[in-house]
Amino acid sequence: MSLTNKILLGMLLGIAVGIGFNLLIVVDEASNLPATPLGVWLQTVVIDGVLDAVGQIFVASLKLLVVPLVFVSLVCGAMALGGHSRMGPLATKTLLFYMFTTALAIGLAMGVAALVQPGAGVDMAPLANYTTPASPSVKETFINIFPSNPVQAMAEGNMLQVIVFSILFGIAISRTGGEVGSSMKTFFEQLNEVVLKMMLLLMQLAPYGVFCLLAKLFASIGFSAIADLAKYFFTVLFVLLLHGLVVYGSLLKLFTGLSPVIFFKKMWKVAVFAFSTASSNATLPVTMRTVEHDLGVDNKISSFAVPLGATINMDGTAIMQGVATIFIAQVYGIEIGAAGYLTVILTATLASVGTAGVPSVGLVMLAMVLQSVGVPVEGIALIIGVDRLLDMVRTAVNVNGDAVVSVIVAKSEGMIDESRFHNMKLNAEVDPV
Ligand code: ASP
């Protein structure tokens, strides 16, 4: 069986086993702990023991690859572009496209939510013990892009800072020229091959990792919360699917003429990684390799656009924020108004720039958005019960958005190998470098 199929099987089995455990474990209402000896054993030994350990090791192995892969690959890309006059326009185009898709996503979300009215008639009291997350200011966000210490940026996994440092480093190598320049160039190109080989090795863990993450998650997920918040939950889910499939498919077709079906077939496994880790950052190695290897985007674009997207482009997250803002405002009986809608679109688009793609960060950003239109931030406590499941789906949308924009920008620059895009046999997880 191919590795991709094994990963899919891992996902399906993980969900099935998780739901099975969920049904088997009878929870004591008062203490919220398993009530039977079997339940206690399953919870402590299997779920919180084995599944949790293997899941965490898998996520660690993905994260392990992020900094080396982004650094080495981006240095190679920047080296190749060097002082190329296209670099500025290329970066600007990518950035604007990311913002455009995010604004589109949140606009769509708020439009649908205004029609569905998810919060109308809902009578809920927010959790009392919820503390509001602190969120950074716009000024801090901007200053934070510029690294003062590259080692610290890498140690903390601060992607924007790593991106800035890698680009400068790559340009410096290409400007150095001569013997030093060319031997450094060879060195980084070879290092890139080694890092990719390491990725292929660690990918063997993926089916087991995906299985464990999903089994643990579905074993402990509270399905009853979904019933209480059904309207909110399904509105977000509907807009996520609409944006992820219809909007991205149309944008791809419109701007590149390439087939959305092929695109989604190739991105499917990336979506599975995003779904099971709920982190665009942890999925980054797989996204980057798939965009470059399977979709044929030139390294000069993918090495820059994909890591940038993982940090600043979160359309799925913006969708949750759009619906959540309207939902919470309705529950509290607050009218946002037309100006409020615009403020939400602007704040959510900017908020996504300053936050990294890690699980649940969308809630921190939501705090910024709610504050901007004067909706009580404690309202976040209303939706927290169903957020994990939505987080998984929106992360899958986020990474697809990064890939769509990368393909569109690459096509507009003539930097996509369309024979690779159309070749269905290519498989980044198993093909050698
Ligand atoms: N988990 C999402 C991501 O990594 C961010 C979020 O919506 O919380 O893309």
Automatic annotation (TrEMBL):
Membrane topology of this protein: Multi-pass membrane protein
Tree of life domain: Bacteria
Keywords, alphabetical: Cell membrane, Membrane, Transmembrane, Transmembrane helix, Transport
Membrane-spanning residues: 7-27, 64-83, 95-116, 159-178, 199-226, 232-255, 336-357, 363-384
Chain segments annotated as coiled-coil in the UniProt record: none
Entry-linked Gene3D superfamilies: Sodium:dicarboxylate symporter
SUPFAM superfamilies: Proton glutamate symport protein (SSF118215)
UniProt xrefs under InterPro entries: Na-dicarboxylate_symporter, Na:dicarbo_symporter_sf
Cell compartments where the protein resides: Cell membrane
PANTHER family listed in its UniProt record: PROTON/GLUTAMATE-ASPARTATE SYMPORTER, PROTON_GLUTAMATE-ASPARTATE SYMPORTER
Protein's name according to its UniProt entry: Dicarboxylate/amino acid:cation symporter
Organism the protein comes from: Cellvibrio fontiphilus
